[in-house]
Design brief:
DNA polymerase, domain 1; Endo/Exo/Phosphatase_dom_1; S-adenosyl-L-methionine; globular; metal-binding; TIM Barrel; alpha/beta; 15 helices
């Protein structure tokens, strides 16, 4: 490997990390250096990559330790047979970059992943060393997210949880046949075993923290994973069911979806075109329905077309409502929270405001319109003090009436 300076390495390894979508920084414990000790904080606002639940933008230095890899996964641009320029940081180079960027107010944390070099254990040791040095040698109190390696020694993976706010282990593909075909060197059983071990370690850490205040925090932001969408034959229904299983079995904070992107010198077993980005968006919406709106996986799947794919022209919640019209219309002034959450166009905040306000007033259609972007989308599914949809809910062409119109955005619109 040719000798590269730090700037050249950063250009290569930051670009190589862009395919990893799971870099959110929410859910961790609050730490700061306001008392004059340590360096960094998990509470400030930043300039870039990820967003906390309250809307704050959190900036992360998102890089790979190296883009060299001994594996040959067909979908990965950094696979062993790929003709890309390679680079590698040392652990201390990553530490110094993180500190230098933080002191210049460029970042608030680190997202670190890596290709596999020499062996899984060796690579995992290097990742852990970066986090250890930041925490112990420099008392860094900012956010750290480490990508762990499933077949590394469990003790090394456990050490990652001691230093990182969040850890993640990618399941890579939604189905076992897809993983065997496109990443034959990886094992679904091994990946899920590592995730189960991490779940147990996180639970043990929380129990210890409850009993002993001096117990160290262990991955306070939990664990997450990522699935590639569109590289294999998995349908949206397959992906929704897989995501639900992962949430239930491993208590994940997030499942991320990354639309497959064609890569240079691609393998012949890969599709020639990337899936529509809207497919990735619809999967995130379906994920939200299960996590925040009380939908069961089978209900989300029932919104899919006969081929198992979610509609691209309308969101999954509207698709479900159009298929199950017997649940509508819903009386805004009397319905339960669970019923209101199923109304297309009503989000969790709007529903909570309705529940708070209707104790003191009766809602009209205009009142509901103030809580949503498009009242036209909601009207067929609700009853208010001055509105009843009569036969509108049962119209055969209802989808055409409420489907969002396509429009070209204007770059310099007022």
């Amino acid at each position: 490997m040719a000798q590269l300076d730090t700037r050249e390495k950063l250009a290569i390894l930051a670009d190589a990390a862009k395919y990893d979508a799971s870099c959110a920084s929410s859910g961790t414990s609050k730490r700061n250096s306001a008392g004059g000790k340590g360096l960094g904080s998990t509470e400030g606002s930043g300039i870039c990559h990820a967003y906390a639940p309250d809307g704050r933008c959190i900036s992360l230095l998102k890089i790979l330790l190296t883009n060299s890899c001994v594996f040959n996964c067909h979908y990965c641009i950094n696979r062993k047979s790929s003709n890309v320029r390679r680079a590698r940081f040392t652990a201390q180079e990553v530490v110094q970059l993180t500190l230098a960027f933080y002191k210049r107010n460029y970042i608030e944390g680190l997202f670190l992943s890596s290709g596999i070099i020499k062996s899984s254990n060796y690579t995992m040791e290097q990742l852990v060393e970066v986090a250890r040095s930041l925490r112990e040698d420099h008392d860094f109190r900012g956010y750290i997210h480490l990508k762990t390696i499933p077949d590394a020694d469990p003790e090394l993976v456990r050490m990652a949880g001691l230093y990182a706010d969040r850890v993640s282990i990618n399941v890579e593909l939604p189905t076992v046949p897809g993983l065997k075909r496109l990443a034959p060197e990886k094992s679904a059983g091994q990946i899920e075993g590592a995730m189960l071990g991490m779940k147990g370690a996180i639970e043990d850490g929380r129990d210890a923290k409850k009993k002993y205040k001096s117990a160290p925090s262990f991955a306070p932001a939990g664990q997450s994973t990522q699935m590639i969408v569109g590289a294999d034959a998995a349908t949206d229904s397959d992906i929704v069911v897989k995501a639900s299983t992962l949430y239930d079995r491993f208590s994940l904070r997030r499942v991320y979806y990354s639309a497959f992107s064609p890569i240079p010198d691609a393998s012949a077993v890969l599709p020639l075109q990337r899936p529509p980005l809207m497919r990735e968006h619809r999967l995130y919406q379906s994920d939200w329905l299960m996590r925040f709106y009380g939908f069961k996986p089978e209900e989300v799947v029932s919104a899919a077309e006969p081929d198992g794919m979610l509609p691209l022209d309308i969101d999954p919640k509207l698709a479900w409502a159009l298929k199950f019209r017997e649940y509508f219309p819903v009386d805004v002034n009397r319905a339960s929270r669970e019923q209101l959450l199923r109304v297309p166009g009503l989000g969790t905040k709007a529903v909570d405001r309705i529940l708070r306000s209707r104790r003191f007033r009766t809602f009209s259609l205009d009142d509901v319109a103030r809580l949503t972007v498009s009242v036209a989308k909601i009207r067929p599914f609700i009853v208010t003090s001055d509105w009843r949809p009569t036969l509108l809910t049962d119209r055969a062409d209802l989808k055409r009436w409420i489907k969002p119109e396509k429009s070209q955005l204007e770059l310099f619109a007022a």
